[in-house]
């Protein structure tokens, strides 16, 4: 039963704007947090990363440079919302989790679209693996257990979510573990 450790990248340097698929840098200056997280991760057989600079830099600063990078692990594409200041993002009003999962910003993809590219990548894992990716990637993995309710999970920067997979059966060991 492989253990899949999903690590959200370190804080994005976005200038208060939605990053999504934009390739922005990460703040990797908190050595204590990186040291703590490296110990918490322990031993893994491989590290797979989104090709986003913020993910690769996070993995490298943990001393776990990616063995592989996968475009499937990129964050959700927010289309016309990408690069917008957070305060200027449209208010969608009250949406059910199912409606939110289907919502697609103009020129982007929905959570369901993103999950459809992320989940097959996770199904390929056969050994203990660290995945360094994005909040959306973590929520896509969690959706294997809780469905659309995964959109309600907080996924802090440099937080760890641990899952196990036995064939097609997923279980959640921990969510949103952060350091000191």
Automatic annotation (TrEMBL):
Q: Which InterPro entries match?
A: His_Pase_superF_clade-1, His_PPase_superfam
Pfam families to which the protein is assigned, alphabetical: His_Phos_1
Q: Which superkingdom?
A: Bacteria
Q: What is this protein called?
A: Histidine phosphatase family protein
Q: What is the lineage of its organism?
A: Bacteria, Pseudomonadati, Pseudomonadota, Alphaproteobacteria, Rhodobacterales
The species this protein was found in = Paracoccus amoyensis
């Amino acid at each position: 039963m492989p253990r899949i450790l999903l690590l959200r990248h370190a804080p994005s340097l976005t200038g208060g704007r939605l990053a999504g698929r934009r390739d922005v840098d990460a703040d990797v200056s908190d050595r204590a947090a990186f040291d703590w997280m490296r110990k918490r991760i322990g031993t893994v057989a491989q590290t797979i990363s989104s090709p986003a600079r913020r993910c690769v830099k996070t993995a490298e600063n943990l001393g776990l440079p990616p063995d592989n990078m996968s475009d499937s692990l990129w964050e959700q594409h927010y289309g016309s919302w990408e690069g917008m200041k957070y305060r200027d993002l449209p208010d969608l009003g009250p949406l059910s989790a199912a409606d939110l999962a289907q919502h697609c910003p103009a020129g982007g993809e929905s959570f369901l679209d993103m999950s459809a590219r992320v989940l097959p990548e996770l199904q390929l894992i056969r050994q203990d693996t660290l995945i360094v990716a994005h909040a959306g990637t973590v929520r896509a993995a969690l959706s294997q257990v809780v469905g659309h309710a995964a959109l309600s999970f907080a996924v802090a920067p440099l937080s760890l979510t641990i899952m196990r997979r036995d064939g097609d059966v997923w279980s959640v060991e921990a969510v949103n573990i952060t350091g000191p």
